[in-house]
Design goal:
Helix 1 runs antiparallel to helix 4, helix 6 packs across helix 8 and helix 8 packs antiparallel against helix 9. The protein is 48% helix and 20% strand. It has 9 helices and 15 strands. The protein has 3 domains: 194 residues, no CATH class; 103 residues, Helix Hairpins (Orthogonal Bundle); 148 residues, Heat Shock Protein 90, CATH 3.30.565. The protein is of the alpha+beta class and 492 residues long.
Length: 492
C-alpha cells in the first residue's frame, strides 16, 4: 500500500511540475506579447504627437520668414481656420508691446528666450486645461500661437481606443499633466511603463505611458488545455507502466508456478519411488526364494517355475519403470548454482508479485527493509524465490479464515550469528498442536483440498542450500515460519 501511494504521489507530482512549468511558460509568453504590443502602440502615439509639435514649429518658422503685411490684412489670422488646434495668432512689432496686456509679460519673456536660443519657446503653460502658447522672436515681427494641446491629438490615426484601451497615457511637463487616455487600472499583477520626450526642442513634453496587467489577462484557457494535455499524456504513460508491471508480474508468477509444479512433481516422484521400491524389492526377493525352493523339489514343477520367473521379471520391470520416471523428472539439487543474494530484495520481489492478491484479500502486508543493512545469503535464486513465495501464499491462505479488518502479515529480515533470518508471521488461527510435528511431511495438509507438498518442498529446498525451515505458533495468535540460510562469507 505504501509503495502504491508513493507511486501515485510521484505521478501527481510529475503532473503538477509539468503543469506549473507549462503555465509559467505560457504566462511569460503572453506577458511578453502584451509588452511588445504596449511598446508598439506607445511609439506610434509618440510619433504622431511629435509630428504635431514639429508642425507648430514649422508654422512659426514660416511666419517669421514670410514678408509681413503692414496693412489691415494679416494673413496669419487665417491659420485657426486651417488648424483647429491653433486658437489664436498674435503678432508684435518690435516697437510695440504684445496686444494682450494680461499675457504681455509671459510672452515678452518667452520672446527673449526665443531670440537667445534661436527657436520657438513655450509660454503660459497650462497642461491641466490643455493650453499653452508658443512664441518666436523675429524681425520685424514676433509671433505667438495659442495652442489647444488636447485638440492637437490626431485621434483618427491613434493606435488605441482612448476609452477602452488599458494603457494610461499622459503628457507631462514641469509637474503638470494632461491626461490623453485614462487606461484600465488593475488591483494587482504586472506593470509596464515607458516615458519618451516629444521630438520637438521647443515643446519638450514627456509622453508617459503605463500598463497594468491583471491576473485575469493571463491565458487561462491555454493553461487549462496544457494541464489537460499533460494529464492525458501522463495517464497514458501510467496505464502503459501498469500494463508492463502487470505483464511482468504475470510472467514471474507463471514461471514460479511452473517451477513449483516441476518441484512438486519431483517431490511426488521421489515419494512414489520410496513407497514402491520397498514392496517391489520384497516381491523380487520372495520370488527368487520361491524359485530356489521350487528348484530343490524333484517333481515336475516347470509351470510353477515359469510363473515365478515371470513374476520376477515383472517386478524388475516395475522397479525399472519407477527408476526411469524418477530420473526423468527428478528435481535438480538446490545448491547446485548457489550465489550471493540480498534477502531483502528477494522478499521485496515476492511481495511485489503478490501485491494484487494482498489487495484482493484486504491483507495488511508489512515489510520495511530500508532501515537495515542488506542481508546477503548464499542461496540458489529460484529455490529461495520458491520458498518465500510458498511461505507468503501459505500465510495468505491462513488469513482467509479471519475477518478482513483483522488480517495482518509481517515479514522481517535479520541476522543470527552466521545465518540470515527471514520470518513470516500472520495473525491467522495458528497451527493445531497435533499438526505441528507433521507440518513438513509430504502429502500432509491442514487445508481441505491441499496436496501437502508446499511446506515439504520448501523444507527440502532450504536443507539443500545448507539452511533450515521451522514453524511455530505466534502470540497471541497466528503462525510464524522462520527460514535460516548461511550468510555470505566475508572477503579475505
Amino acid at each position: 500500500m505504501k509503495q502504491w501511494m508513493r507511486t501515485q504521489g510521484g505521478w501527481w507530482l510529475a503532473w503538477l511540475a509539468l503543469t506549473a512549468a507549462g503555465a509559467v511558460w505560457l504566462a511569460r509568453a503572453e506577458l511578453e506579447q502584451i509588452h511588445q504590443d504596449f511598446e508598439t502602440d506607445v511609439r506610434i502615439a509618440h510619433r504622431l504627437m511629435s509630428q504635431q509639435m514639429v508642425q507648430y514649429d514649422a508654422v512659426l518658422a514660416t511666419l517669421a520668414l514670410l514678408e509681413p503685411s503692414t496693412g489691415a490684412d494679416q494673413p496669419e489670422q487665417r491659420l485657426p481656420s486651417v488648424y483647429s488646434s491653433i486658437l489664436r495668432v498674435q503678432r508684435r512689432d518690435r516697437d510695440e508691446p504684445w496686444a494682450d496686456s494680461a499675457q504681455a509679460g509671459a510672452l515678452a519673456a518667452a520672446e527673449a528666450r526665443s531670440r537667445s536660443q534661436q527657436r520657438p519657446e513655450l509660454a503660459m503653460l497650462d497642461l491641466a486645461h490643455g493650453r499653452y502658447a508658443l512664441v518666436i522672436g523675429a524681425t520685424p515681427f514676433s509671433y505667438a500661437l495659442d495652442i489647444d494641446l488636447a485638440g492637437s491629438v490626431p485621434w483618427r490615426d491613434w493606435p488605441m481606443d482612448p476609452q477602452r484601451s488599458p494603457v494610461r497615457l499622459s503628457l507631462q511637463r514641469d509637474g503638470q499633466q494632461l491626461m490623453l487616455q485614462p487606461g484600465v487600472p488593475a488591483a494587482n499583477g504586472w506593470r509596464f511603463g515607458l516615458t519618451k520626450a516629444l521630438a520637438s526642442p521647443s515643446q519638450p513634453f514627456d509622453l508617459v505611458a503605463e500598463r497594468q496587467v491583471g491576473w485575469g489577462e493571463l491565458p487561462w484557457r491555454r493553461i487549462a488545455g496544457w494541464a489537460a494535455a499533460v494529464a492525458v499524456l501522463l495517464a497514458g504513460l501510467w496505464a502503459a507502466q501498469r500494463q508492463r508491471v502487470a505483464r511482468r508480474r504475470a510472467e514471474e508468477l507463471l514461471r514460479l508456478g511452473q517451477v513449483a509444479r516441476l518441484n512438486a512433481l519431483g517431490e511426488l516422484s521421489a515419494g512414489l519411488a520410496h513407497e514402491l521400491n520397498q514392496p517391489l524389492t520384497a516381491v523380487l526377493a520372495n520370488a527368487q526364494a520361491a524359485r530356489r525352493l521350487l528348484d530343490d523339489e524333484p517333481p515336475d514343477l516347470a509351470t510353477a517355475r515359469d510363473a515365478m520367473g515371470q513374476a520376477v521379471e515383472q517386478a524388475r520391470r516395475a522397479a525399472g519403470v519407477v527408476g526411469r520416471l524418477r530420473r526423468v523428472i527428478e528435481r535438480p539439487e538446490a545448491g547446485g548454482d548457489a550465489k550471493p543474494l540480498v534477502l531483502q530484495e528477494v522478499v521485496r520481489s515476492a511481495m511485489h508479485l503478490l501485491a494484487p492478491e494482498f489487495a484482493k484479500h484486504t491483507i495488511n502486508a508489512q515489510f520495511d527493509a530500508t532501515a537495515q543493512a542488506p542481508v546477503r545469503v548464499q542461496a540458489e535464486a529460484v529455490a529461495l524465490e520458491q520458498i518465500v513465495h510458498n511461505l507468503l501464499m501459505n500465510a495468505l491462505q491462513a488469513l482467509e479464515l479471519v475477518p478482513a479488518a483483522e488480517r495482518r502479515l509481517v515479514v522481517s529480515v535479520g541476522r543470527n550469528g552466521q545465518e540470515g533470518v527471514l520470518t513470516v508471521t500472520d495473525n491467522g488461527r495458528g497451527i493445531a498442536p497435533e499438526a505441528l510435528p507433521r507440518l513438513f511431511e509430504p502429502f500432509f495438509s491442514t487445508r481441505e483440498g491441499g496436496l501437502g507438498l508446499g511446506l515439504s518442498l520448501s523444507e527440502t529446498l532450504a536443507g539443500g542450500m545448507g539452511g533450515s525451515l521451522s514453524a511455530a505458533n505466534a502470540s497471541p495468535r497466528g503462525a510464524r515460519f522462520t527460514l535460516l540460510l548461511p550468510l555470505v562469507a566475508p572477503s579475505p
